[in-house]
Write a structure and sequence with these properties.
34% of the residues lie in helices and 22% in strands. By secondary structure, it is α/β, with parallel strands linked by helices. It has two domains: 10-244, Spore Coat Polysaccharide Biosynthesis Protein SpsA, Chain A (Alpha-Beta Complex), CATH 3.90.550.10; 248-358, Rossmann fold. Strands 1-4-3-2-5-8-7-9-6 form a nine-stranded mixed sheet, with helices on both faces. A six-stranded mixed sheet has the order 12-13-11-10-14-15, with helices on one face. β12 (308-309) and β13 form a beta hairpin. The chain is elongated and about 70 Å long. The model is unreliable at 1-19 (pLDDT under 50).
């Protein structure tokens, strides 16, 4: 066992052996850390620089093999608002749940070791939750901390995230992709007891949480300004762990999308999937496994229009039936194709969320 790994969880507050009185802060920041000795200092410093003073930082070292625990403890000795939990390596899900279980604040904010919070982040998000009692989760816009030239795809993903601000935006786009940059969120602590925390499995833990909470009726929004710099290092978990590949995202959203369709689309309306290419049809079959009946496809490719796949006809955009008879699921993932489908449907009187829905 490496020297920095511990056999059990240890809690240190304001230095080893100190015993300050228990306090209830406004915000508990949960920071999972694994082999992050080189980057975690900037993340911690960005929390120490917050304009909101009433916070605690719970840094959970998940059995790091470098000096992450030592770096965190050094910060904690100088700041009684910071606690360090050191544990054996069990992965991100149990690390997050351990941190949240130890949290004392009314609100829980996520933070990652690769990123930096802007000074007003905690103050603005806590104020938003205080003034919007119907909202359970609040994120923010994020600054892209990578190279747009080398990582254009990731940068465009950030642009898409930043376009979703209102609860309506987030609800209607939840089946396209995860609507939040995970380390940018803050939520009410009681949601964990009401709807459960993070779950472990072959899926992205944050996306599964948002889909489950949205399905339960939790309202989500964003502060409409950038409050976090979301960096894009090569070792970021979303780049190295197979749970964040495209296929796990499709499998994760399929049962929740099927539930949404069952409760929002009248049974007599036929379901058409916009996109008849092989990848789209393959993803659509995941919905069939959850009881969704697909009546046909819509596609702009003249070579596909008029054909049939698995007994389902392919319509051109001009040939789709009347909107009262059908519901269209825009399931194309190719950049730009989803917006073209949206524009066509809207121009023909289709209302998003009532007559069609975007997914990917």
């Amino acid at each position: 066992m490496p020297p920095n790994r511990r056999a059990s969880n240890l809690v240190r507050t304001g230095g080893v052996g100190s015993n300050p009185p228990v306090r209830t802060p406004v915000v508990s920041v949960v920071l999972p850390a694994f082999n992050a000795a080189q980057s975690v200092g900037a993340a911690v410093e960005s929390i120490r620089a917050q304009t909101l003073a009433d916070w605690e930082l719970l840094a959970v070292d998940d059995g790091s093999e470098d000096d992450t625990a030592g770096v965190l403890k050094s910060f904690a000795r100088r700041n009684p608002r910071m606690r360090v939990l050191v544990r054996r390596h069990h992965g991100i899900v149990s690390t997050l749940n351990d941190g949240m279980a130890a949290a004392r604040g009314r609100f829980i904010a996520r933070m990652d070791t690769d990123d930096t919070a802007h000074p007003e982040r905690l103050a603005e998000q806590a104020s938003f939750l205080d003034t919007h009692p119907d909202v359970g989760v609040v994120g923010s816009l994020v600054d892209f901390g990578g190279d747009r030239g080398r990582n254009e795809g990731y940068a465009l993903h950030v642009d898409w995230l930043n376009s979703l601000v209102t609860p309506g935006d987030i609800e209607l786009n939840r089946f396209v992709e995860s609507p939040f940059a995970h380390p940018s969120v803050m939520f009410r602590r009681e949601l964990i007891a009401l709807h459960g925390g993070y779950r472990d499995g072959d899926f992205p833990e944050d996306y599964e949480l948002w889909l489950r909470w949205l399905d339960a009726g939790v309202k989500m929004a964003k502060v409409p300004r950038a409050l976090l710099t979301w960096n894009d290092p090569a070792q970021r978990l979303s780049r190295t762990d197979t749970r964040y590949d495209a296929e796990p995202f499709y499998r994760c959203k399929a049962p929740w999308l099927a539930r949404w369709l069952a409760t929002h689309v009248r049974p007599e309306r036929r379901l058409l999937v916009w996109g008849a290419g092989r990848p789209t049809r393959k993803r659509a079959e995941l919905l069939v496994e959850h009881g969704v009946r697909i009546s046909g496809y819509v596609d702009i490719d003249p070579e596909k229009i008029g054909r049939s796949f698995s007994g389902r006809p392919v319509f051109g955009p001009a040939g789709i039936p009347a909107k009262d008879e059908i519901f269209v699921l825009c399931f194309v993932a190719k950049r730009g194709a989803r917006e073209l489908a949206r524009q066509h449907l809207r121009s023909h009187g289709f209302v998003e969320g009532r007559d069609f829905l975007a997914a990917a």
